[in-house]
Amino acid sequence: MARTSTHVHEGARGRNGPPRLVFPNPMGDGDVRISVGCMMGPFTTGLIVNGQDTGTGFRVQQIQDNPAGFFADVHSSLAVPGAARGQFPPG
Q: How far apart are CA 4 and CA 63, in angstroms?
């Protein structure tokens, strides 16, 4: 399982794919929670497939070159497989 519950996956519309970026889980108590900071490569996801982290070798340029080939998803304790998914629009 990846380290956080919000990810950017590589995968075309209607297809699943590996997480390539993971976002920090928000911190805080109660109803107000925040995330702070910027992410910088090299990226890791904590998910190992075929002996390699699924973030290995990922570059943000890949999203810029083919945004429709990526989607973001969010998981929650009530929707472990995914609460929401949003495909990135074509460039």
A: 20
Cβ-contact 76, 83 below 8 angstroms: yes
Residue with tokens 């590996």: 18
- Torsion angles phi and psi, residue 5, rounded to 5: -105, 5
Residue 1 reports pLDDT greater than 50: no
Please give the angle made by the CA atoms of 74, 64 and 36, to the nearest 5 degrees.
Answer: 45
> With left for phi above 0 and alpha for psi between -120 and 50, is residue 83 left, alpha or beta?
alpha
Q: What is the pLDDT of residues 27-52, one digit of tens each?
A: 777 677 777 778 888 999 999 999 99
